[in-house]
Amino acid sequence: MPENNEIRILLADDHALVRRGVRLILEGEPDLRVVAEAGDGAEAIAMARSHTVDLAVLDIAMPRMTGLQAARELAALQPGLRILMLTMYDNEQYFFQALKAGACGYVLKSVADRDLLAACRSAMRGEPFLYPGAVTALIRNYLDRARQGHETPDQILTVREEEVLKLVAEGQSSKDIAETLVISVKTVQRHRANLLRKLGLRDRLELTRYAIRAGLIEP
Q1: Is 149 left (phi over 0), alpha (psi -120 to 50) or beta?
Q2: Which pTM does this prediction carry?
């Protein structure tokens, strides 16, 4: 907990209206203060570098860099930073990835007015927060997959494949993706072929639909 008991928050969501609503919920509490706002994951990382923050509240589906990708960077950049994922997607794949990325909580936007403050308190105590009903469903899903010999969801795609998938779904060309990720066009094409093979899909349209369902991009 910060010395003056004020929790300084970084809030990242690509919708200004959502940020305004979340900010109102947070700043209704005397010890919570939003000190920085960001419209995408890359901006969130820049804000974390230029502001002193104790807690980051990150939307999962954002342009350029998702909240999950930003969480990985932030966890490496500031190991003591608490991270909460804010999402409209009740999706076990991204719940597992959120924990692996360093997040300590997963809050659904639909019930943020009910759960967000409790999640912030849990995060600052170093305790995990799950929305009600998540634990049973997630454990059941995980055990079912293990019994059937399936890979757990967070092992389906590598971090790099997820990055390529997001950019393909956003309509970027192989050349643009190569420049964004600082890799060769040939490497991008190889990742794209691996994505199609692993996910059993045929083309960019199907990859885009998958990315929407998975919460990497919004429709």
Answers
A1: left
A2: 0.68
